[in-house]
Structure formats: structure tokens, C-alpha cells
């Protein structure tokens, strides 16, 4: 199989972790006989510095010409004070729109080897296996108006939560499809007791559910979901929600198992290419020190192999390697614990490659 | 001191827990020589059934004529399918607007006697003492338009996040005032990298901070806050945020210490009366069984004594009684644990009264 992959390292540790993931992809290519070619594009603060925009058109073009996109991370204090439309995260929001990445998938997996790192009790998180599906191109993120004005001499401000029904349908449908191949349960999160958009969301979920008789649908209010996520995360299989609620809940979910540096994500469009990135940020404080955890990015590559290329065996090979390396006691600094072998970013990558 | 208190028991266990709290207020009145008079009003599902509206005008009038309001809880499956404008929680939203309750205060306190009940590890929650200050009358909750329509033949929906700058100022100012008498730190939560309203919020926080040089202000993005709340709740002192973010984060905060049945809240207006209520819901599944935990409502009464009546000593007497009763091993079912004495709602109330 031949595939073109766009690599957008971005800022901070983005370069280091994507470099590691590319090496893992190459190792997979060699072992399974695939040809992966890599092209590099700029995004985020580095792009602002060099080209005056957080998402240059040529990066968009590169992505559209590729079969999949791997992103490192964007942002850093260096760009905190520049005008809003130039901020690194604008690049992220723009690429989502440009590629129509309407759904963000974030698995939260329990790693028994990392249980100590979790703030939660072991019995609460043991065997947690939840998948957050977040709507990614609608809601408060892109609704207009989003502006200040004066009304009767008073300063006021408005943001707009806007959705097309069709945008709800496609992401909820995706959640059901995913649940079908997992635990068979969808928790749809909304605030139907307050928001009209949530009442529509709930109706759409009911409609979609009719086509998936073997999947159980449950509705949960967002405030309750924020509670239940901490109280009993095991109750969840697939959780689907709108953009802003998803932003909050998926970050909450990501710390449950104590393995933030381990969590991958995929952003899906109708026609492809899909975009993959680790959950974690650009961590400018540890940039260039060769101590960042590359596993989230490596596991993002496993998602790429599975979801973009249909290479299930190859995906499992990557996931198995990561597990083996952890079981062998190798740890980057963020997940280090007494008695384990502390390794650098590049050493961790070598270990993973060696077990592939 | 003479005070008129409006009691709105509401639905489900609301009646049982407010009854207990009234008895505790009476006990305080006797011991400290105050005269509390109680008048009862309807709100929620019961009000819908009897009077066709979740907040009858006479309840509003009663509240406005009182020095403070104590609310039990509203809602239940019985009213889940009725038209939105009649739902029990509409009564809650309406009373907030009618009394202009612009700030909701929710302390989350660590009880060493209840540490086992927390989903978090003891070292993570030990000595947590955080106060959520949630804006309660603005944002997505009341913004217009909130409606469906068709655009180019497509079904669409819009909700509106609207704020007056002045609404931000007063609640943020309150947070600073509260922090001054606590840990001296305010964490202002927003989504300034996406929302214009959050950028205004951040500016207002900076402005207000100038008048409180002894208080430290920190800004945190809401997704990060949802993480940090689980990861390291001890870092927080006072957290202030807009209505919807506050709804989500305060519910998240409320499960950290495992003592949801223990958590009180106060809703503040500029001129009073203030409204007090437990965090927990109406729990229709255990209604009438005399097993509900009355302590959250009793602790809400302690907040009333402190914030509405300036009776600090009396407030502390209530809080001390609750602590003593817990230390003596008394537990309602929700916080029961092996080796402790399981008591009913009324028995728990008797224990608290006995130690006052
Ligand atoms: C950087 C920010 C705009 C972004 C978001 O809110 O979507 C981030 O938090 C994320 O979740 O990818
Ligand atoms: C019942 C509901 C409308 C309400 C809210 O969202 O404000 C509740 O969740 C709360 O926090 O008091």
C-alpha cells in the first residue's frame, strides 16, 4: 500500500513527538511492506513567525493532497499576546474547517501499568474504556455574531451557538457506528433543560437511534456528565456531544486514567483526509529537552493506520508494541515511577520500533 | 434578631430535607435567642400539578417579602414529558431572574470522615477547600434568540450567549471579595481563545483585580479547568466563571470529595433576599423513605445565618454540630460505611439538634 502523509509538527514538543511517530510509521511500512511518504507543513506559532499566518494556504493544500495528516501541537507563551486572529490555535480551528473535520474521537483507555499516576482510585478507573466523540466544526466555535457592541449605552457581548440539524445527524450517526463495534452504548450529552439546540440534539439522537436497534441510547445532561465522568467513568462506552461540551468533557476524561501523555485523537471528515494528533499540548517548558512522551503521537498513528488506511493488523502491532514497552518498565518522565526505567523521547521511540 | 424565612420545599426529598433544616434553625433560634418565622411556598412539579405553573406569582411575592429563602429541590420523572415552559426547573430559572440572583456560591469541602466515599485518592483531595462562584442570570441561559428556523431549506437552531459587561463585573468583584477572606486567590475560568464573551470576561477580571492588590488573579481555560479540577483540586481557592461553564464545573467539583449529599449553596443578589439550597437534586427514587441526607440543607442554613443575617457564631455552631455528628459516626445511607451508625433523615436531624 502507498500512502501520502502530511506531517505538521507545529510548536514546542510537536517536532520531537511527530519525528518519533514518523519513525514508527516507517518501521511499520518496512515490516508490513507499505510505502509511506511524508511531506512537511507549517502550522501554529512557527508559521506565524515565518509566514505571518498560523495556517498558510500551502499547508492546507498539502493536507488536502494527502491521505492523512499527523499534527504535533501548537501554541506557546511567545504568541499569547499577539492579535487573536493570528494566534497559533486559530491555525487549528481553521484546519478543522478547511478539512471539514466534523468529529473528534478521543479514546480514554486504562493502562494497568500506569494506574499509580491517576488521581482516581484504582477501583474507579480499572478497565475504563471510553470513547469521546466531539462535534468539531459547529456550535459556539464558529457561530456569528461573536462580537461586542453597546445597547442603551451599556457594553454588551454576544457569542452564538449555531447548528444545522444535518451537522448533528452526521456526528451522532458516527457515534452509533462506532458503538456498534464497541460496547453497544451511546451516551448523548446535552443541556436540553436549558438550550433549544440541545433539545434538537436530543431529537436527532432519538431519530438516529432508530437505525441502530442493537445500540442502547442514553441521554445525560452535561452537568451530570461532568459528575459521572469522575464518579463512575466505567459506565461509559461512546459519549457524543456538541463542540463546547465536548471540549470540556474530553479534557476532563483525559486525566482520569493519569495517562494524558498517552492519549491519541483522530478528527474525521466525510471524505478524508483525517487528522491525527496527541491530546497533549505543545509543552514549551520541556521543548528540545528530549524528555517528552512520544506515545500519544505514536498511538495517534495507530488510529491513522486503522481509520484512514484500514490497516487493522498494523494498528494493533503499534498498540501491542506500546503495551509491551510499558510492561517492560520503560517510562518517559511524565509517567515515571519508582523502580521503572526512565528513558528519553528518542529512547522510547527506539524501544517501540524494536518491538514492532 | 427577628427574621422571616421563605421555605420552598419543592419536589421529591425536598420536603424532608427542608423540614430538618427548619428544625435546626429553630434550635439555633432558641439557643441564641432569635426569632425565625417560616412561610411556605410552592415551586417545581408540585406547583405545576396544583397551580399550573412551576413558579406561582405568590411564591415570588412570598420570597420578595422574606429575609432569606430556603429551597429544597425540584423535578422528577413525572414532569419530564410536559412542555418545556412548564418543567419544574423553569421555576428555578425564573426565581433566579425574579430575585436577580446573579451569583451562585458553592463551597466544596473535604471531610476527612468521608474520604472513603470519594472517587479520588486521599492525597489528591485531602484539605480541598474550594469555592465555586458561578454567574447565574446571564449567558446561554437567558440569551435571545433561542430558537429553530430554516435557512436555505435547512433546519437550523441557535442559542445565544449574551452578557452585559456590568453582569460580569459584579460577579467577578464578589469573587474577589470572597477570596480576600479566604485563600487570597481567584481563578477566573473562560474560553478566551475562542469566545469574544470570554475575552471581555478576562478583561473585566483584570480590571477588577486592580482594586484587590492582595488577591492573586489567575486565568484558566475551561477545558484545562475541567482537567485541573480532577488532577489537583487543592490548587484552587475561589473559582469564578460564567453561567454554563459554572454549571458544569461546579457539578464536577461537587463529586470530588465524595460528599455530594453534604454540599450547600447560596445564591446572592445585590439587595437580597438570598436563596439557599442543597446541591443535590430531588431524588424521587428515595422520596418519602426518610433516608435522604439532610446535611446539605442544614449546611445551607449555616450559609444563610452567615451571609444573610451576619450571624457568624450561629453559622459556626451549625457547622460544628454537623462535624461532631459525623465524627460521632452517624451516617445517612448515601454516606454510610462499615462500622458507622446508619441513621434516618429524622434521626440525623435529631443528632444535629442535640449537639447545638
Ligand atoms: C486550542 C483550542 C482552540 C482547542 C479547542 O478548544 O478546540 C483545544 O482546546 C482542543 O480541544 O483541541
Ligand atoms: C435544573 C437546571 C436548569 C439547573 C441549571 O442548569 O442551572 C441546575 O443544573 C443547577 O445547576 O442548578
Automatic annotation (TrEMBL), chains A, B:
Q: What is a GO molecular function of this protein?
A: 3-isopropylmalate dehydrogenase activity
Q: Which positions bind substrate?
A: 96, 106, 134, 223
Indicate where this protein resides in the cell: Cytoplasm
Q: Which Pfam families match?
A: Iso_dh
Residues recorded as binding NAD(+), renumbered to this chain, are 76-89, 281-293
Residues given in the record as Mg(2+) binding sites? 223, 247, 251
Q: Where is this site: Important for catalysis?
A: 141, 191
Q: Where is the Isopropylmalate dehydrogenase-like domain?
A: 4-352
EC number(s) given by UniProt: 1.1.1.85
Organism whose genome encodes this protein: Robertmurraya kyonggiensis
State the similarity comment. Belongs to the isocitrate and isopropylmalate dehydrogenases family. LeuB type 1 subfamily.
What is this protein's record name? 3-isopropylmalate dehydrogenase
* Primary gene name: leuB
Question: What biological function has been recorded for the protein in this entry?
Answer: Catalyzes the oxidation of 3-carboxy-2-hydroxy-4-methylpentanoate (3-isopropylmalate) to 3-carboxy-4-methyl-2-oxopentanoate. The product decarboxylates to 4-methyl-2 oxopentanoate.
Keywords attached to this Swiss-Prot or TrEMBL record, sorted alphabetically, are:
Amino-acid biosynthesis, Branched-chain amino acid biosynthesis, Cytoplasm, Leucine biosynthesis, Magnesium, Manganese, Metal-binding, NAD, Oxidoreductase
What NCBIfam families does its record include?
Answer: leuB (TIGR00169)
Question: What does this protein's record comment on cofactor binding?
Answer: Binds 1 Mg(2+) or Mn(2+) ion per subunit.
Q: Which reaction does it catalyse?
A: (2R,3S)-3-isopropylmalate + NAD(+) = 4-methyl-2-oxopentanoate + CO2 + NADH
